[in-house]
Amino acid sequence: MKNGIYIVATPIGNMADVSERARSVLQNADVIACEDTRIAKKLFTLLGLETRKPFITLHDHNEEEHAAGILEMAKNGNSIALISDAGSPLISDPGYKLIRRCRQEGVCVYTIPGPCALICALQLSGLPTNKFMFAGFIPNKDKAREDLFNNLKGIDATLIFYETANRIVKTLKKAGEVFGNREMSVAREITKMYEECLNGTAEELICRFEKNEPRGEMVLMVSPPAEKEKPYQNAEDLLRQELAQNSLKTAVRNLVEKYGFNKNEIYELALRIKNE
Ligand code: SAM
After folding, report:
1. Which residues line ligand 1 at a C-beta cut-off of 6 Å?
2. What is the pLDDT of residues 196-226, one digit of tens each?
């Protein structure tokens, strides 16, 4: 194996999802960099792989420090497989700082793709896939959660978040307040025995979880805003297009009717554009 860092995706529930390439890299790498050596060794055992090689940790609390050692190993001719507890490394998991340094210091990086919870969830959801934004874990504090949702509200894309079972109802309540009746989806236990994907408004999903206690790992998705909820910052572009074809009065009326913009504000904007 060539020296360098191999980013290896591992199963998120079903062991049969490990790729042949992942298996071969894990078996042949000189060193395994992982979040937790016990979980990594258990994974190796489940996959029938040999655990007699160095396993070193790379997690949120030691990434900077341990990255230096891993880079040195790679520079000295070693192959290092980077895995997380499950799924794709670097995606709400450690590895970013290490890979950034590899790029800066000319150490080779290879990707061995495979399961990634956010992609699997999006595929299952039936929500638009042409534009999506992954926003990682939802903060635990009420204010931070609300601020995050408000900041993302106008984005014209399906929003994807990682969330835990014990917080999902609280999160859905806030999501309902901020995103209103937009369709949402919760994909849980993906690739496991009780995999399911539930769609509905926040209120409908809360009802569902009040009847059946939420369990397992989950991904929350929120559909993009409807045309009339789209961000106000587009107003000027839209107005310019309207003004190119219509009178000021008609352009303002069209924008107010189509997008629900404030009439006085749009009128003032239109006057400014006309006077440019
Ligand atoms: N890096 C991993 C990935 O992207 O595949 C994710 C790691 S992150 C620490 C763990 C979160 O991913 C969980 O809290 C959950 O939100 C999501 N997740 C992981 N496995 C899942 C599964 N089988 N079903 C649903 N969500 C899952």
Report:
1. 12-13, 84, 86-88, 91-93, 115-118, 162-164, 187-192, 217-219
2. 999 999 999 999 999 999 999 999 999 999 8
Decide the pairing of beta strands 217-222 and 4-8.
unpaired
Mutate to test the pocket of ligand 1, among 124, 160, 218 (most ligand atoms within 8 A of CB): 218
Mutation choice for ligand 1 from 43, 84, 140, 162, CB with most ligand atoms inside 8 A: 162
CA distance 136 to 155: 15
Using left for φ > 0, alpha for ψ between -120 and 50, and beta otherwise, residue 222 falls in: beta
**pTM of this structure:** 0.85
Question: How would you list the strands of the sheet with 79-82, edge to edge?
Answer: 55-57, 31-34, 79-82, 4-8, 109-112
C-alpha torsion 43→47→48→52, nearest 10: -40
CA of 204 to the centre of ligand 1 (A): 23
Residue 209 CA to chain centroid, in angstroms? Answer: 23
> What pLDDT, on a 0 to 100 scale, did the predictor assign at position 258?
77
Convert 81-98 to b/e letters by CB count within 10 Å (16 or more is b).
bbbbbbbbbbbbbbbeeb
Continuous segment of H or E residues that includes residue 80? strand 79-82
